[in-house]
Structure formats: C-alpha cells, structure tokens
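thought: fold this chain, then report.
action: predict
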Amino acid sequence: VEYHFGRLLDHVHLVISDLEASKRFYRAVLRSLGHDLSGEGEGYFHADELFVSPGEKTSCVHLAFQTSCREDVHRFHDAALAAGGTDNGVPGERHYHPGYYAAFVLDPDGNNIEAVFHGKATRSAPSIVVTPELSHPE
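observation:
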C-alpha cells in the first residue's frame, strides 16, 4: 500500500448530515476534475486526503481543490451545481494573486468548496509517495 500526498495538508475530514447527498456531490465535482472517490465503507467515503462522514456538525469549512486549467474550474462549477451545490462565486479571476482563477460553491452542508487554477506553473513533482512500514515500532 502506498499513499500519494500533495502539499501542506495531511487530510481534511468533513462532518456532514446526509452521506448519500454528499457522496453524490463530491463524486460529481471530483470527476469533473479528473479524480474520483478513493474508497468508501459503512458510514464514510474518502478521496485522497479528503475524508467525509456523517455526524454532529461543528463548523463550516473552506476546502479548495487545485486544477490544471481554467476549463477545469468551469467543469467543477457546472458539476457542483448539477449535483446539488449552491453557487458561491462564478468562475473568474480573483484578486489573491495574478493568474488566480477560481469558482466557489456551497456543498449540501454549507461548506465553501473552491476549485482554483493558479496560472501557468511548474511542479517539482505531482505528489509525494508515502509507503507505510508493515511493523510499527513504538
């Protein structure tokens, strides 16, 4: 088993009220960005570093997915609205830095979900690879 991780965050866990509505929403927006759910089980699903499960909601979250082009931002926005999301900012340039192009939607629980293209850039690697050891010396 190996895991591929991106940048700063280890994982994000969203607590939601309706598992099926959230699964439908996140599957649609992830597929619009060329990804899908990584797995699911009784009462949860996950995609890469995103974990989602029902429970008592404690806060709203702002979660941003990176994209590789402006067209992905538009696909994300369209897919999110079609899957039950609410518009929270149409695709367009933002003032955060030159080239910042993003769209925002609220998921079924009111979390602010963003897709962002940071403009033309070069990555040193698409992800890092973490391979857990079978034994856990403590």
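thought: worth noting. Residues 86 and 106 are 5 Å apart (CA to CA).
final: tokens above.
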